[in-house]
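Dear Dr. H.,

I hope your travels went smoothly. While you were away I took the liberty of generating a structure for the chain from your last submission, since the lab meeting agenda had it listed for discussion. I wanted you to have the full record in hand beforehand rather than looking at slides cold. The sequence, exactly as received, is reproduced here:
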Amino acid sequence: MITRADVDDELVSAYMDGQLSPTEEKAVASLVQTDQSWAERLDAFQQDAKRLRKLPVQELTDQMREQILALSDSNLPAGAERRRVPRFRRRWMLLIAVVVPTVFTLLFFSNPNDISRLYLKKDGLELQAGRSILDEDIESSKTWLSPKLWGKYAPEDTSGLGFQVDAEELEDRTVQGEVEYDFDGDGKVDRRELYEVAELDARKGWERFEPELEKVEGDFKEFIGGEVRVTLRVPPGGKKNFRVSGTPGELIVPYRGLRTSKGAYE
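The corresponding predicted structure, in token form, is as follows:
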């Protein structure tokens, strides 16, 4: 039997696509109708789908092919050793499987409108999406570090931090995000972003936050073997203990051709 605690992003995206069993569909429908945070999450998926359908095609690079093959390989049956790719991504992989052999172009689903994302995973920041293995209890802070990055700064592009956390039934819990950039890998922080404090409710259930910037120090520069560090922490004076989900969040950065090795797109 599916309970509210079993519902995650994958089930919600599959609910939007009409791919659930009657039992799953009933559970998700009840959740999005009674929980405002999940209703907003469903709306976010729907908006993403609309944007994906409007994307222009672009040539498939060698690195894009590698990323697509990696995602395809991870699409194993439930219970297999590796995790399943979320269903809304599998749908786009089917489209790619048809288009690539004939015209070698596609809608690059994990990078809409050339938006560069770094995903918060269990062990760090990664360019590829997908669930982490387990939810994680955090006492006061957790930091995610990216690999070495190269990329061209695009001042016209957007940036922002999004994360998914839960206070469960603990009251007066708050979380604040901080992002630090070291653009050339010399170990010094070149840009620091502090985001507004997120106030969590005292109910079980994941809350999605996309806070506004509160304070910025330093300017964006091109990545030349640099790194990004994202930290979620209890702000000064706040009460400890919160939880991050198996899909902790993502950092959108204003870069084109963001990659983890020099010359990967060249």
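Two observations you may find useful: Residues 12 and 28 are 7 Å apart (CA to CA). Helices lie at 9-17, 22-34, 36-53, 62-73, 87-103.

With kind regards,
E. W.
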